[in-house]
Amino acid sequence: MPLIPKADLIEIFSSIQGEGVLVGFRQIFLRFPDCNLSCHYCDTDFAKTATCLIESGPGSGELKSWENPVDLQQVKELIQNWDAGLPRAHHSISLTGGEPLLHDKLLLSWLPELSKILPVFLETNGTLPNQLESLVEYLDWVSMDIKLHSLTGERTDWETHRRFLEIAMEADCYVKLVVGEQTPDLELQLAADLVSGVSKDIPMILQPVTLDNKIGISTTRLLQMQALIADINPNLRVIPQTHRFLGVL
Predict the structure, then answer these.
(1) Phi, psi angle pair for 157, to nearest 5°
(2) Where along the chain do its domains lie?
(3) For the whole model, what pTM was predicted?
(4) Check: CATH 3.40.50.720 for 11-175?
């Protein structure tokens, strides 16, 4: 039997999903280090650490440390215990980061086991289609960002996003756009056209950027954006980062 690799993790915790179409559902979050982008608005420290912070109990907010790298068996037992102790409380396991798909080879070993416990939800920047293709059979949900240059400072690779979304359609997927006052109509139109070109059934989320725990865009501008995209893809919702206002992990 091949040796299953260990993972460097940042955090494991139980909390409420604060973004996208699963907002309000409770998940067990596995936060992975490293990212292939450097978005201006990013509020997450995804640098590798010597230890992984683990909640002492699901939802307790009290953290203890495990030494990195972490063994799959440790993680399986933790998730199984949390799931058994709170039956049906958790909707799914959330793979977040950083960018989890940078760890695709490790996840290829881990996900066949983790997906037996709870459904698996991937949060991703949508720029690594080859890595997604190797893992999509184990994913139930894909939350894909389209990173807009005006807000991230990163070049938007429209063709890569299109390829990624076509693969993500094998799971339940949706597309999230983080937007601010500086986001131009042209970028919104390009994003909406891309999504509708793959499928008009894919939900789209406009997520106003959060700055210092406040919405960083006026309601007037946000409604203008909503009207513009709804004319291209009516399967659209406006959802802020609700976990920031709840004050949860």
Answers:
(1) -95, 90
(2) 11-175
(3) 0.94
(4) no
